[in-house]
Known about the structure:
By secondary structure, the protein is mainly alpha-helical. Helices cover 77% and strands 0% of the residues. The protein has helices spanning 2-29, 40-56, 59-71, 75-88, 95-108.
Amino acid sequence: AKAKADAVAKAEADKAEADAEAKSAVAETKAPPAPAESDPSQDETLVTAMNDWIAALPTKGREKLVEQLSKAETEEDEWAVLVVSAKKDTTKVRAKVREALLAAAEAKGWLD
Length: 112
């Protein structure tokens, strides 16, 4: 979870570059896709929503959230932290990003 939180923090700065590199690496290896329990596009939506939410937060809020994410032991725990963060936030500035995150969490079944 700590590695994921660190990656999320870094993703804010170079998300597009990392995404491009990851896609090209996957295309070059031509390995069969790993078995997934859900639609890969849904997982991509989840990751995008998570990264967008973290990037939208002010610095102190982002640092606190990344710290909380680093303590999470499972992906489900991480999403619980993200959902709580989004539900606490009431700013109009982040409303669209918050709605996207909550919709992604609900689609995955991680919303109460």
